[in-house]
Design brief:
With 90 residues, this protein is mainly alpha-helical. 38% of the residues lie in helices and 0% in strands.
């Protein structure tokens, strides 16, 4: 009478099933990530008429802009500058 190992055969079947599923997942990821060709889309011609941009420089001559004054120049700091060692407490 032959001795059969039913538990080991079930384990082998599950192992083959899991290994096959993992292999299919890896192949799908590789196909999607590396081997699938990207579809190129032809550029679409614009349906609107191209307009030219004109800049109105007369706005720079308006009285509101001519009345603006430049900022006053800030004088340099005069006097003693901080502590000799800034890391010691007061």
């Amino acid at each position: 009478m032959a001795i059969t190992f039913i538990k080991e055969k079930k384990k082998q079947k599950y192992f083959i099933l899991v290994f096959g599923a993992i292999l299919l997942i890896i192949l799908a990821i590789l196909y999607i990530g590396f081997f699938r060709e990207e579809k190129t889309v032809a550029p679409i011609e614009p349906l609107f008429i191209k307009k030219t941009i004109t800049i109105n420089f007369d706005i720079l001559k308006s009285p509101a802009l001519t009345e603006l004054q430049p900022f006053e120049e800030i004088p340099l700091f005069e006097g003693e500058k901080g502590k000799e060692n800034p890391f010691i407490p007061y």
